[in-house]
Amino acid sequence: MQIEEIQNYPATLPILVEDELFLYPFMITPIFINDSQNMKALELAIKNETMLFVAPSKFDNGRNFDEIFDCGVIGTIMRKVPLPDGRVKILFQGYAKGKIIERISNKPLEAKIDLIRESFLEEAKQEALLNVLKEKIKILTNISHYFSPDLLRTIEEGTDASRICDLILNTIRIKKQKAYEFFIQTDLEKKILQLIDLIAQEIEANKIQKEIKNKVHSRIDKVNKEYFLKEQLRQIQRELGSDTQKEDEIKEYYKKLELKKKYIYEDSYKEIKKQIEKFERIHQDNSEASMIQTYIETALDIPFEKISKRKLDIKEVSKQLNLDHYALNKPKERIEEYFAVRELLEKRKISDKDGAKVILCLYGPPGVGKTSLANSIAKALKRELVRIALGGLEDVNELRGHRRTYIGAMPGRITQGLIEAKQINPVVVLDEIDKLNRSFRGDPSAVLLEILDPEQNTKFRDYYLNFNIDLSKIIFIATANDIGNIPGPLRDRMEFIELSSYTPNEKFQIAKKYLIPSEIKKHGLKNSELNINDATIELIINEYTRESGVRNLRRKIAELCRKSAKKLLLEDIKKININQKNLNEFLDKKVYEIQKRDQKDQIGQVNGLAWTPIGGDVLKVEIIKIKGKGDLILTGSLGDVMKESAKIAFSVIKVLIDEKKLKVPQKMFHNTKESIYNQYNLHIHVPDGATPKDGPSAGITISTAIASIFSDKKVRCDVAMTGEIDLSGKVLPIGGLKEKLIAAYKAEIKTALIPKKNYERDLKDIPKEVLDNMQIVAVDSFDEVLKYALV
C-alpha cells in the first residue's frame, strides 16, 4: 500500500479506536482488534486501499465520536493476522499526526482527517531547548528505569525536536488527558518547555519515592535485625537457664488471682487458674499461647475487688440533681425516692434482695435530659459512668460475649464496661433500650432480662470468660424515647420516669443558667466578652428551634459563641452584645416552632392538639362540603386509626342531625326529602400532608369540624381540643396531655377542651405558666364540646 502525499490531505479515512494508549508517528505497534466497530473500520481501509486513522478513546470501550479524542495517528497496515480466539492482530506503522475536522459516518467511524502541522523553530533556539531537555532526561534516568540504553542513545543523538518529544512522551507514564494536550500542541517551543517542566516534576516525584523506599527498607532491616538478635538472645538464655520473662509473667498472674480470690466465685477462680496453668505448660511459639494470655489478662483486669465504698447520701443526690438540672421536678423526686430507699436499706443492713430493688427507665423526647440525669447520679455517688448504646443492637454476643472458639472473640459490653470503669459497681446507662433489634443472631432483650433481673444478675455468665459475674452492685439506668417499642417482659422489669417537654419559660431559665455559661466556657470566651439579652434568648427559643428538649437550643447558643469568637479576633473588639436587631447576623434561618392561631372564626376549621416525638403541636383540621352522596374523602397522610376516628365522627354527627340535636339551616338542603349528610361529600384534610399523622385523639376535633359544616356555624379560633370519641358521643381520655397543652399555650390558644378523665388525672402535671394563661375545660360528652366550640 503506497503512502499518500501531504498535499492529498484533508482526506476521508476510517477510524480505528485504541483503548490503551496514544500512538505516535514512526512507531510500529501491534494492535489487537476484538470488537465489530474496529473490525469494520479495518475492512473498509483494506477494501478502499486507504490509510487508517488510529484515535485513542477517552475511556475503555468508547466507540462513538463523543467518546474518543479528536486527534490520532495516520498510518498503514503492515500485516493482518487472525488469532484462534477470534481476535485479529494487525501491525500498524504510524506516519503523521492528524485531527478530525468533519464527521462522516458512525458505523464504522469515518471522518475527514487533516494533518497536525507544528510551527517552525529557529535552529539555535531548538538546539538550546533540546540540550536542556536531554540533560533532564539524563537526571531522570539516573533515579528511575524509564529509558533503556538504546532509547536514551537515540534521544541524545537525535536532532528532530518533534520526534524526540514524541519518544519521551511515549515512554513516561502520563494520563490520557495530559498526553492529549501535548499531542495537539502545535507550538514546538511551548511543547518543549512544557515537557521540560513535566520531566522536572517526574524527577522530584521519583526522588521522594526513592527516599521513602530507602527509609522503609532501612526500617525493615532494623526490625529484622532486632528480631534475629532477640531470638538469638532468647536461645542463649534458654541454654543457660536464665530466660525468666514467661516465668515472671506467670508469677504476676498468680499473684493478681490470689488478691481477687475472696471477691470472686469459686468457679471463676478455678477457670482463671486453669487457664494460667495451661499457659504455663504451652510453648510460647504455639499460636494458642497469645489467645490464652489475652484471656488471662482480660479476666484479671475485671475489677472484682474495686468497689466504690462511698455511702449513699440522699442529700448529696438531691443537691447534685438540682445543681445540674432546672425543672424536671417529678423525675428528680422519683430518683431521690429511689436512692432514699437504697440508703435506708444500707443503714439498716437489709439485703437488696429483701428490699424494693427496681430498674429506672427515663423516657421522653430527644434532648430533655435523660442521659444527663444519669451523669448527675454518677457524679453524686462518686461512681464511674458507663454508657452502653443499644440502638440497633441485634447480636446477643455483643452483650453476652463471644465464645473463645471464635476468631477475634471478646467479652460482652457489660464486662468491657466494668474493665473501662475500673470499678465493679459503676452507674451503667443502657441508652436507647427501645431501639433494640431482633435477628438471626438472637434477641438481645432476652439477655437484658437476665442482666436487669435482681434474681438473676448475681450470676451473669459471660461466654468469653466462661464464668459468672455478680452484676447486682451495678446501678442500671435505662433511657428510651418510646416505651411502646420495648418488649413486654423487659418492660415489666423497669419502672418508668417520664421526662416530657419543657415550657418556653423553662427553656429560657435553662439557657440562661446552664447553657450560655457552659458554652461560653467551652469556646474559650469570658462572661464579660459576650452578652445575650433576655429578649434575644426568648426569640431564639420561639423562632429558631423546634424541639421538646434543649439540644437544638444548645447548638444555636454554641453557634453564637463560635461566631462571637471569630468576631473578637478579626475585628479586635472587647465585647459583643447580641440583641434582637443583630441576631440575624449570627443565626440565619428561622424555624417557626408552632404556627400561631388564626385571628378569625371560620366554618369547618378547628384547632386540634397532637403529640409528636419532638413534643406537642397544634394541627388544624379543615373540612369542606361538595355536592355528592355522603362520601368521606380523607387527605393529609392520615393513619388507619385516624381514618377510623373520622368515620366515627361522621356517624356521631349523623345521629345528632337525625335526633335534631344539631340544627341544619334550611338553605343547606337541595332535596328536603333526603338527609342532609347524603347530599354532600365531605373532604377532610389535615395540613402538612407530608407528615404522617395517626391516633384516636382527633375524634372530637373532626366531629366539631363536621358539625360546623352542617350547622353553618363558625368555630372559635381561640379554642383547641383533644379527645377520643365513641359512637355514643362520649369523650374518652388521651395521652401526651402535657405536650399538647404546652403547644396550645405557645400558639396563644385561650381555651383548651380536654377529656374529663384527663382533667381529673393529669392536670397536676401541667406547668403553672400554662394553667395561669389558659382556660382548660373538662368535657365528658360531645354536646359540651359544641357549647364551647361553635359561635
Low-confidence blocks of residues? none
* Main sheet properties: 7 strands, mixed
Number of helices: 25
* The CATH homologous superfamily of the largest domain: P-loop containing nucleotide triphosphate hydrolases
* Average pLDDT level: 85
Strand order of the largest sheet: 18-19-17-16-20-23-24
- Ends: how far apart? 102 Å
The CATH class of the largest domain is identified as: Alpha Beta
Shape-level CATH architecture of the largest domain: 3-Layer(aba) Sandwich
Structural class: alpha/beta
Task: Name the beta content range.
Answer: 15-25%
In total, the number of strands is 24
What is the radius of gyration?
41 Å
CATH topology of the largest domain: Rossmann fold
Overall geometric form: extended
Helix content: 40-55%
Give the number of domains. Answer: 6
How would you characterize this protein structure?
The chain has 791 residues and is of the alpha/beta class. The chain folds into 6 domains: 6-115, LON domain-like (Archaeosine Trna-guanine Transglycosylase, Chain: A, domain 4, Roll), CATH 2.30.130.40; 123-208; 245-301, no CATH class; 314-498, Rossmann fold, CATH 3.40.50; 504-585, Helicase, Ruva Protein, domain 3 (Orthogonal Bundle); 605-789, 2-Layer Sandwich (Ribosomal Protein S5, domain 2), CATH 3.30.230. Helix content is 43%, strand content 18%. It is built from 25 helices and 24 strands. The chain has a 7-stranded mixed sheet with strand order 18-19-17-16-20-23-24. Strands 1-3-4-5-6 form a 5-stranded mixed beta barrel. Strands 8-9-12-7-13 form a 5-stranded parallel sheet, sandwiched between helices. Helix 17 (504-522) crosses helix 19. The termini are far apart. The relative contact order is 0.05.
